């Protein structure tokens, strides 16, 4: 993708946009596709058998198949929501209601996390008497993985890390993190 693919950047040529984690700008083909969908096929998904609902089902579930292929999971394991905070809150609250968050348990977060991946855990930590452990960084801003090894214990309920930081531009080694936990 290039700047010219984004109408907003073409209209504002002086801008270098670095806040995509907050609000992602849309390239023209996404804007066109959304507009086409709203003007030609819009309906609720998963609950209608009329033409527009079936078209919407095809787009929605087709998109899930494509994303699943891209990130190597099953389509029925995907959950589309409107933002990161809502996704993490949903997962966190479902862990809470399932009884997974037992008193004395520990949650590991890194010091680079956005509030979207901190506040809900802090609230649940207070409610369920859990401890949050903080993973530090090396001087090159990558995760301190030897420290992660020390933080993980039988009390660890969850390790919730942003593997790619938009603030630091660092991509952490997911496979290595996975091996440790
Ligand atoms: C790095 C980062 N993570 C998460 C979020 C939260 O995003 P959302 O609005 O999708 O909940 C933001 C929002 O600014 C962000 O910058």
Summarize it.
With 181 residues, this protein is mostly helical. The protein has seven helices and three strands; from the N terminus they run ααααβαβαβα.
Describe this structure in words.
- This protein has a 3-stranded parallel sheet with strand order 2-1-3.
- The protein has 181 residues and is mainly alpha-helical.
- The chain has 7 helices and 3 strands, in the order ααααβαβαβα.
- Pyridoxal-5'-phosphate binds next to α4.
Query: Helical segment tally?
Result: 7
Q: Which residues sit in consecutive blocks of at least 5 with pLDDT less than 50?
A: none
Query: Which strand order do you get reading across the main beta sheet?
Result: 2-1-3
Helix fraction, binned, reads 40-55%
Question: Over the alpha carbons, how many angstroms does the gyration radius reach?
Answer: 20 Å
Tell me the structural class: mainly alpha
Shape: globular
Largest sheet: 3 strands, parallel
Helix-strand pattern, N to C?
Answer: HHHHEHEHEH
Terminal CA distance: 35 Å
Question: What ligands are attached or bound here?
Answer: pyridoxal-5'-phosphate
The average pLDDT value, as a whole number, equals 94
The fraction of residues assigned to DSSP E strands is: 5-15%
Count every beta strand, where a strand is a DSSP E run of 2 or more residues.
3
């Amino acid at each position: 993708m290039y700047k010219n693919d984004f109408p907003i950047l073409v209209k504002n040529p002086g801008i270098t946009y670095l806040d995509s984690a907050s609000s992602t700008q849309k390239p023209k083909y996404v804007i066109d596709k959304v507009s086409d969908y709203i003007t030609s096929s819009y309906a609720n998904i998963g609950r209608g058998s009329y033409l527009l609902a079936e078209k919407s089902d095809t787009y929605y579930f087709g998109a899930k198949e494509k994303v699943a292929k891209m990130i190597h999971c099953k389509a029925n394991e995907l959950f589309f929501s409107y933002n990161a905070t809502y996704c993490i809150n949903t997962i966190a609250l479902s862990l809470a209601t399932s009884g997974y968050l037992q008193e004395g348990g520990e949650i590991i977060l890194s010091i680079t996390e956005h509030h979207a991946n901190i506040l809900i855990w802090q609230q649940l930590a207070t409610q369920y008497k859990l401890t949050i452990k903080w993973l530090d960084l090396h001087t090159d801003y990558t995760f301190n993985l030897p420290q992660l090894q020390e933080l993980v214990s039988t009390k660890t309920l969850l390790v919730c890390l942003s593997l790619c930081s938009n603030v630091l531009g660092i991509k952490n080694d997911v496979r290595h993190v996975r091996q440790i936990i």
